[in-house]
Amino acid sequence: MRRIADNISEIRERIHAFEQRYQRPADAVKLLAVSKKQPEALIREAFAAGQRDFGENYLQEAEEKITALADLEINWHFIGPIQSNKTRSIARLCQWVHSVDRLKIARRLSDQRDPALPPLNICIQVNLSGEDSKSGVDPSATEELCRQVAALPNLAVRGLMSIPAAETDFQRQRAQFQRLATRFYRLQESFPQFDTLSMGMSNDFEAAIAEGSTMVRLGTALFGPRI
Ligand SMILES: *Cc1c(COP(=O)(O)O)cnc(C)c1O
Known about the structure:
- By secondary structure, this protein is of the alpha/beta class.
- It has one domain: TIM Barrel (Alpha-Beta Barrel), CATH 3.20.20.10.
- The chain is built from 9 helices and 8 strands.
- The protein has an 8-stranded parallel beta sheet.
- The chain starts with a helix and ends with a helix.
């Protein structure tokens, strides 16, 4: 089996190559290691290789890992769907939440975030493909939600996140990401603090980097298949 350290350095090299290929500044793209359904031992290996940002989707699994890995200075990102009875724990344990798509959830996260802690970093999840089954705010309602969330204390809205419809064609992948990026750049005029465009997964991160992603969320490309 390949070592995680090798995967991480190979992925970092690919990210750098894509930054160059698409005229992005060096280090414009951050790597979020999506560790859902991966054992703690692999997270420790990735941490030892220099990785500091990890993403989890399922709260109970996240709670167990965050507790077991409390000796490591990890930035934990919650990237899964959020039910309102889960916000307290997320507000306590995570540094980032990428999957905020309604005001009710944002209000609870803000109310439940300890004001003594740094603000919880938030990305607003946008439903690009308009599929009913997918989470995310409707694109037309995104600006209003950003405005409401930006007004809440204890949160720092940092930008947008999306999971576009699965697509294998590179140009079509780019077209979807371009729609999110256009929205992001427009919002930056009203929200100059926006610095995070969370888009790109294992099968489409080149297209996402080409279109302006600042954070790619990679699971299987880093860790292999989930258990
Ligand atoms: C699982 C997941 C990822 C990682 O997916 P891979 O295809 O394994 O890279 C990224 N973002 C979200 C929101 C996910 O749920």
